């Protein structure tokens, strides 16, 4: 299986592990065979494999009630609010910048995807937001 070289008290030893079953190891030290019994069972630790499912994040702002004209702007990723460029009552058109969100040392401009009027702002400058956290409501 594997070969190791040890030096103990200036003496060199070549250890060749032949087999390993449960807690008994058959090995050879400088040509002499030994069967070594381990006091505890040796368990192999397996590295877990992480599996992530596909993102279920919608491509457009979430509308909680389809009959309602209110559009909820949510954080696309976790980050910190650097600036808010709108205030309640502002009329926005598509493409207007609403705020700047810093995530992973990058500034991300959050722009308006639907024309409307700002009805409420749920965040403050310097606040940390989580993914899908409500930031702004438009009507």
TrEMBL record:
One Pfam family here: Biotin_lipoyl
Record key words, sorted: Biotin
Entries under Gene3D superfamilies matching the protein: 2.40.50.100
Limits of the Lipoyl-binding domain: 59-139
Hydrolase found in the keyword field: no
The protein's name: Acetyl-CoA carboxylase biotin carboxyl carrier protein subunit
Source organism of the structure: Gramella jeungdoensis
């Amino acid at each position: 299986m594997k070969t190791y070289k040890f030096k103990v008290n200036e003496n060199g030893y070549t250890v060749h592990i032949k087999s390993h079953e449960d807690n008994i190891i058959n090995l050879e030290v400088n040509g002499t065979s030994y069967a070594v019994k381990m006091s505890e069972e040796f368990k192999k630790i397996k590295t877990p494999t992480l599996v992530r499912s596909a993102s279920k994040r919608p491509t457009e702002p979430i509308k909680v009630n389809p009959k309602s004209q209110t559009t909820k702007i949510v954080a696309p990723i976790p980050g910190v609010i650097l600036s808010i460029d709108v205030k309640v009552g502002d009329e926005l058109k598509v493409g207007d910048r609403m705020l700047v969100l810093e995530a992973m040392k990058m500034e991300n401009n959050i722009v308006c995807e639907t024309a409307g009027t700002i009805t409420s702002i749920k965040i403050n400058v310097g606040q940390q937001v989580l993914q899908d956290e409500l930031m702004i409501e438009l009507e």
